[in-house]
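For reproducibility, we list the full input for the alpha-D-glucopyranose complex.
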Amino acid sequence: MTNWYTKAIFYELYPRAFADGNGDGWGDFIGLRQRLDYLEWLGVDCIWMTPVYPSPLRDDGYDVSSYYGIDPKYGLMEDFKLTVDEIHRRGMKIIMDLVVNHTSDLHPWFVEARRSKDSPLRDYYVWTHDPEKYKETRIIFLDTEESNWAYDELSGEYYWHRFYSSQPDLNYDNPKVHEEMLNILDFWLKFGIDGFRVDAVPYLYEREGTNCENLPETHDFIRKMRQFVDENYPGTLLLAEANQWPQDLLPYFGNNDEFHVAFHFPLMPRLYMALAKGDRTDVVNILADTPPIPDGCQWATFLRNHDELTLEMVTEEERQFMWDYYAPDMRQRLNLGIRRRLAPLMDNDRRKIELMHSLLLTLPGAPVLYYGDEIGMGDNIALEDRNGVRTPMQWNDSINGGFSVAPLENLYAPPVSGPDYGYGTVNVLVQEITPNSLLHRVRQMIHARKELDMLPRGALQWLDHLPNTLLCFWREDENGKFLALHNLVETEQTIELPTGYHFINVLDEDSAVGESITLGAYGFYWLLVS
Ligand code: GLC
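The corresponding predicted structure, in tokenized form, follows.
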């Protein structure tokens, strides 16, 4: 059975960065509604919206100070509801971020928990006198945090946090916390949203003598969430953000009784490695190491997102290679990753940007695009942390790139400027009216993919007799057979096509396919067996 999410094209957008409808310098729901035509035209099936909850924004909304509201900068609740309805009216879906692992330190639960040790809210968080506890746990935000414990002056104990110290972890040993989370799910699902991207899932429990990740208790809680949505809101999608190795990711699907979809974190850096080395081996190996997933489940694949390009799921040697190759300037590095966007990572080389999109759209999984990458937006290294990849969407070459009519100094962040990536050069409008633009090419691939039913979950078979500089594979299921050819290097390469088939050149239907195909520099072909 194919569920909507199995074959969906996802589009991650930062509401603050997307479109400002009321001219205050912040993206909002009015702006988003005005731009839904664009997303529909592009072929997006499901929008993933990063957090819009009230928040002190020390982690850009992933530090939630109230789960039951919208930060007024984005609009009113009515606005939100209207937006959800508008998205549905166009046949698209929307999922929201659900931050389960932690709250902001300004959340009233934590404020009260600090104030009174007798409060029932004290036990919503994880406290200790002994900061040596759980010492086998790694630190995720290595650049800013020295410990997973932070001392609270007010109550004289340490509290546990896997991310910034301004984000205390919730205590899942407390059944009240489970109850709260299910109430929060219920609250948002009542608005008719289609699911959640569940943030930072592996870290819900702590146990001495473990690395405090992927614990069985965490899986128990996820099953509980899944049961809740299945019983009350059937069809709701739960998408896992678990930055883990494939064998640790598999349990997050359970028996299709945990998450429906999980991001394939280890595949992502290997797509970049394959291109950098001009060698398919890393991609082939990681997919060989990827176990089959239950029917009805799916991988979410991606090239970039709102965080740094994470290099947690590679070896130390591979990480060094990736850093040397893609982040030669130290400022481009952050934690164990690279804080750059797709186009700059590809040296703004159209051929490579298209090739990466082709890989994303033809390999197994449901592709998740990151706003702006479809037009080749750049990043801004001068902005701190991950803000450099969260700059305003570039709609046209008018003031602020058409993102906002507010004076520049009122914008939450300046739009990217300069001759290569500035909005004067890179914007939606100019690419809409230019038939051979990157945007049109990406859109063409998206729409072509929708007709190729074997792509989301069909079998994958490599053409392994070809040199490693080629990444070529069959995709096949009961709907048909498809051949994808990718040239990972600049040198032209000719491939003898498998005999006994009649192929259609999907991306250029008028051109006949002969017995062999020559792939130009970083070229690719999509061939459907007719
Ligand atoms: C996730 C989010 C990231 C955030 C972190 C802590 O990894 O993607 O942006 O900083 O969780 O909430």
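The radius of gyration is 23 Å. The chain has a mean pLDDT of 97. Both points were considered when choosing residues for closer inspection.
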